[in-house]
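Sequence only, no structure available. Ideas?
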Amino acid sequence: MTIRPGVLSYRGGLSVAAMHAHHSVQVMVARRGEFVVSDTAGAEVVCRAMVIPPDIGHALLQGVEEGEMVHLAAESDDGVEVSRTVLQPKSAAAWVEAGDALLAGLGAGGWWADGLPYVRSTVKPMRHPALSSALCLLPERIAAGPVRLRELAGAVGLSESRLSHLFSEEMGLAFRPYVRWLRMTRAIDEIALGRNLTEAAHAAGFFDGAHFTRVCNKTFGMSPAVLTSEMAFSVES
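Reply:
I predicted one. C-alpha cells follow.
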C-alpha cells in the first residue's frame, strides 16, 4: 500500500465489504477474478473495474484474488476528474461504465495508479519558494494540533489567499484536505513503524485514537485496524 496526500493505493486481495460510503473517490480494478458490487437501490453488477464517487453508498458483495484499490481525495484534481466520468453517481451500472473506460486505456498487466500524475513524473516539480517553506513547516505543526492557514501564511511571508491559491494550483489539493490527508499519512506511517493507535493518532495531531478512527472510516470506509492489517506500506511525502 502506498499513501501520500491525496492518494491511497493498495494492490493485493480485495475482500467483501458491507454497505458503506466514504469521502473519497474509489477506483477498483481486478487482475484476477471479478467484482460483484451493489448500489443503495439494490442493483448488483458483475465487473472487472469500477469508479465510485465520494459519499455514495455501495457494497462489495464479491472480492477478487488480486486487484487494485485506489482512493483519491474528493477535492483533488485527480479525484474531481475521475468523478466526472461517472454520469449517474448513485448507479452501480454507471460506476462500471466508468470502470470499463479506465480498462480500455490500461495495458495488459498494468496498474491504473501508475498512470496518475503523482507517479508519472520522477522529477520533482518546481514550486513557489514560500509553498516549499510551508510544506517543510507542516509536519511539525500537524503534530502540535490544529493548523491554521492564516498562521502558516504569516510564517512564510504570504497572504492567506495567496498561499491558499498556491496549494490548489501547485499541489492539486486545497489546504484543508491536504492537511487532513497529511495527518492520515503521518498516523499510518507511525503505525507502520510499530506505534499503537493512540500513539500514532497523537503524533499526527488527532485528538485521540477515536478521532483518528472516525476520520479514517469517513475517508476510506474502513478502520485503521482493517486498513493496516497484513499490509506493507510505502509512505511518500
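The longest strand covers residues 64-73.
Hope that gets you unstuck.
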